[in-house]
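Title: Prediction job returns without error message
Component: structure pipeline
Severity: low
Priority: P3
Assignee: unassigned

Description:
Job completed but the reporter wants confirmation the result is attached to the right record. Sequence as submitted:
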Amino acid sequence: MKILLQIPLSPFTGYGNDGIGLSRALMRWGCDVRISPTVVQPPLPEDISPLLTKPLEAPFDLIITHVDPAALNSSEEQQRSATAVVGWTMWEYSTLDNLPGRSLFSKKTKYLDAIYAYDEVSAGAIRTRFKRPVPIVQGGFEPERWPEVERDWNSDRFGFFMLGQLHERKDPFVAIEAFNELKHEEPDFGPAELHLKTTVPGLHKAMEQVYDKLRIHYDVWPEEVQKIFYSKQHVLLSPSRGEGKNMPALEFQSTGGIVIATDWGGHQQWLHRDYALPLDYVLRPVSPEFPTALNARASVEDLKSKMLWAFRHRAEAKQMGHLAAQVIPKLCSWDSVVERFFQKLPEALPDGRGAQLQQLAMAAKWGDQNGHDRY
């Protein structure tokens, strides 16, 4: 099965990492992958670099454009060069009203046969401006890079943390407020720490002098340092206003930690009470300028309750983390995601092309395109 991917390739961004993970999973599946990268940022993994040398010779069985919704684009030429052309994206608000270039969205996506969305919120927003199929398949991660670790759940210190680009949508000040109030209200909460690891401005180091055991990490870490950091923490806080997926949450759960996360948007695709702690919220307009574009506002009181539970019930929290390390890699790996992507093809392309491409995908997995055994 010959697939052209239009993707960013970068180890430093969410979509760029997704481009790498998706390419690898499709190659493991048995597809002939060609790439037309929208961005290339070195250093690229050695197994991805050779894709840059493969010619982009039509026809293709499938073109997948996996980019931010503002960058989704299609052309009549693409439509002629492939059996089908699909987009794949995420959006963290209830409508596309606050999307840059939103007035051009329908025109730019005119020649897409379908758009895969990461979650129900993304799908609902896209459907307001795109009238063809919008199946739901959330992107994945690479769990082999984040094996379960043996962390000390009974140590004197107890680590809560956030990690990522901690801007307004991530709502780090909800976590700071909950943490600070627990420090003043619960005497036994003293050993708790809150670490905020960010790569964007907005959290000043001087805050460490104001809030007891708050630490700000403003840096870009290599993966090995991030692994060590994960191993020292117990609970990831994600009182986010909206997520398409939340890569750090998947990585951390794969290592055996637990997550407290807003029960809305992309979180709902993997958030389960058996191994994570869903966080209550209300919906609010993103701004007065866009009153119909809603996102979540996590409850400080519910976050305090969940944090205190994890702090005081460490044996149960440890068991939840161990279960997360078993479930999340199987549920959210790129290999599992690609399988779901192909399963959804008849829904995405109900005119018969989806079933045809699904058969090609199965042939690619088990043999060549004539169905012969590759081995």
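Comment from assignee: result matches the submitted record. The first strand starts at residue 2 and ends at 6.
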